[in-house]
Design brief:
Elements (H helix, E strand, L loop, with lengths): L3 H23 L8 H20 L9 H21 L9 H26 L8 H20 L10 H22 L1
Helix pairs in contact: 1-3, 1-4, 1-6, 2-3, 2-5, 3-4, 3-6, 4-6, 5-6
């Protein structure tokens, strides 16, 4: 049986490495983004993945993997924004941003492990296209919650939806890697 925890960590290491490199290039300019802006960035990435999955012709060389990595990193940024609030100016050094990144990943991975235990790794039998659709569904839910000013009656909050998107994107990357 494959070790989901190790595969998860390997995918996150790739995402984290890119996050750190972009922090060195751009600093924490993303800290000025409001949650709806981050949600829209993730939505653009998910829509592009869906287009790549449905269209045979590609005009830009980036593949699905790069977009799933983007979904993971933007979702982690959103979780950090939920905790810290929006900044007027970039205000995080790379070391602090990475510490926050790691904390959000740890919480999200723990959620994955709990759900994975209960669901018996059912995601391994899913198609990458289905995971893309689930991410898009979560995005539509987040947009509705944002439109409702963060209030829900019986549903999970925005943070749980971002965590699910991270986990679905990691699963998609694991599945793509296992087929190559």
């Amino acid at each position: 049986m494959k070790n989901t925890s190790q595969e998860y960590d390997a995918i996150i290491a790739i995402c984290r490495d890119l996050f750190v490199k972009k922090m060195k290039d751009y600093g924490s300019a993303w800290r000025i983004l409001r949650l709806p802006s981050l949600t829209d960035q993730i939505y653009i990435k998910a829509q592009r993945i869906r287009s790549l999955q449905e269209n045979e012709v590609r005009k830009i060389e980036e593949d699905e993997q790069a977009e799933f990595i983007g979904i993971i990193n933007y979702s982690i940024m959103a979780l950090i924004q939920l905790e810290l609030g929006v900044a007027e100016q970039p205000d995080l050094e790379t070391s602090k941003a990475t510490e926050l990144y790691d904390a959000k990943v740890a919480t999200t991975k723990s959620l994955m492990e709990d759900k994975n235990h209960d669901y018996g790794e059912a995601w391994r039998e899913m198609r990458v296209n289905s995971l893309t659709d689930l991410i898009l569904q979560k995005l539509l839910r987040v947009k509705q919650i944002e439109d409702n000013k963060g209030k829900t009656i019986v549903s999970e909050g925005i943070d749980a939806n971002y965590q699910d998107m991270i986990n679905y994107a990691v699963f998609a990357l694991i599945l793509i890697e296992s087929k190559s």
